[in-house]
Design a protein that fits this description.
Blueprint lengths: L6 E5 H11 L4 H6 L2 H14 L1 H12 L9 E3 L1
Parallel strand pairs: 1-2
């Protein structure tokens, strides 16, 4: 029996680079379609830096998801 894992059409590598260089203004959230969360990050500077670091770790570990709730492709 084969198992299929559904992944997003958004790239994990691009999300990581956007988070690394523009995470404090929420670029990675805009990229994956989480517009409201991106605006929140924009006005709070990445949830005061804490959310930015949590997002970096979740992207690295593969737990970061797009706006529809699917994991990013590798």
């Amino acid at each position: 029996m084969e198992r299929y894992i559904i992944t997003s059409n958004k790239s994990k590598k691009i999300a990581f680079v956007l988070c690394l260089f523009g995470g404090l203004i929420g670029l990675h959230h805009f990229y994956v379609g989480n517009i409201l969360k991106g605006i929140l990050y924009l006005f709070t500077l990445g949830l005061f830096g804490v959310g930015f670091i949590i997002d970096l770790v979740s992207i690295i570990t593969g737990n970061f998801r797009d706006s529809s709730g699917t994991r990013l492709k590798i």
